[in-house]
Amino acid sequence: MKLFSSLILIFFTCLSSVYAQDSNSYNSITVTGQALLLRGHKIEINADGFLKQVGGAGYLTDSTAKLHQILYEPIHFHYYIDAKKQLKFSPTAFRFLTVGKDSVTWWAQSITEGLKQDVFGKAYANGVIRFKVLVSGAQVKFNNINFHIPFNVANSKYLGGLGQKSNIRPDTVKWNLRNYSKIKPAFWVGNEWRGLYLRLDDQPNSNNNNFVNGWSNEESEGFQINVKGSSMLSDFTTGSIALASGQELTFNYTIVISERGNLKLPVNSKKKFKQLLYLDLHTK
Q1: Each residue of 85-97: pLDDT tens digit?
Q2: CA-to-CA distance for 203 and 213, rounded, in angstroms?
Q3: pTM of the model
Q4: What's the CA gap between 240 and 186, in Å, rounded?
């Protein structure tokens, strides 16, 4: 009887140890190559510093993993200097600045004709990822700048935020800067497995003439979210922006990768969005 009791004690001790290790691993960040593993997600970072792909970790086949990928293409900006011509930034540097269990930071730089783009990212173990994008250099006038998040259509069934009341993502969702006082520029898109939350960070107007807030242009058309080609595209349009030599054009935004929900319960987009908004605003 004593032997049986001892075996039972050893079994539960080992089980508790394994559970503690899994729990610690789940609540920390691991860097592998240019990817982050956190909370069951594999988050790939592109050479330009933006998110390349978000999916599950540990799938046995590439085809299975692809089914659970959130993005159709990497997140990116388009910088137009007239209706047809855009500036192409080429990545020149990338490095992780700090690597810890609770957070990871990185920096990437890309260059084009007389301009540079610096991207600073910080990922937290709870799934919150903050970005700061700085564009500076020679004097330039942008006809328009587009901020694109191309979602996989199959993994963008639901949408919460931007004043939407239904769970299912409508065919087209629009948001304009004129609505800012009532509806903030933040939303969640996903399915039963996982999703991606985005919030354009508030950047108060500054008296510093060297600072240009990319989100707050009066000519901005804001968000349009709908299926375009093979992706479900989130497109933020800034409108015309003039940048003087020595000025910095700044885009700050936050992304949260949502966890898998209870597959036995229907998705509540509004509740999911509010939970992620709370997590975002309370992560320091």
Answers
A1: 999 999 999 999 9
A2: 7
A3: 0.88
A4: 22
